[in-house]
Amino acid sequence: LLTKKENNMTLEKLQRVVIRQTLLDRVVKRCSLILVQLNGEMVVPALRSDETRKVCGDIGVTEPKGQYKRGAVYAYLRNSVIAFPALLFLSYQAWKVEEFGFALFFAGAGLLYVILSILRWFRFGYKYDDRVVSIKIGRLDERVFIIDFLKCQAVTVSQSWIEKKLGLASVRLHFVMKTLVIKGIAINEACAIRAQALDEVQNSKRWF
């Protein structure tokens, strides 16, 4: 309040744009815009959606058009396949020795784990065009990452043995100080994202 600061950033140093919206922000229909560079970040708080779009347009980082897509829900439930039966087994063992409090605790923990995994899948989304990728993650604290493919340092497409059977794959996009993962998408889609990122880096004359 007593000290006024003005921060400036050149667009060449901009690595990514993050739109953050907490649960309270969604109630008041506001969000924060985070501009990330190599040595720090600038935060513009309490923006309306139209103000956010205007600022992103002014700096030349626009969100790709279209609806967000999700990967297969399996990618977010695969850990539950191990955790849920284990917690149910502990609940059953506690019930057998008449430790009903522990039985309810383990059963509730298993159910909560599955519900949170489903919510994680429901809140995730991705979309991209020929220049920019946008990835939405988070449940109560939602973050939308908007990144130029040119800022990509490496792209990894991986498949577990189950994903090979299902024709799915995961894509890891490695950026400066951040790795974003798109899980459970079709292998053709994963290869298309990788090709788009590599094509943008190879053909563009821009560099950072």
Provide a short characterization of the protein structure.
The chain has 208 residues and is an alpha+beta fold. Helices cover 41% and strands 30% of the residues. β2 and β3 (40-47) form a beta hairpin.
Describe this structure in words.
The chain has 208 residues and is an alpha+beta fold. The protein is 41% helix and 30% strand. It has 6 helices and 9 strands, in the order βαββαααββββαββα. The protein has helices at 23-28, 49-58, 74-96, 100-123, 161-166, 187-203; strands at 14-21, 31-37, 40-47, 125-128, 132-137, 142-148, 154-158, 168-175, 178-186. The strands form 2 sheets. Strands 3-2-1-6-5-4 form a 6-stranded antiparallel sheet. Helix 3 (74-96) runs antiparallel to helix 4 (100-123). The radius of gyration is 21 Å and the shape is globular.
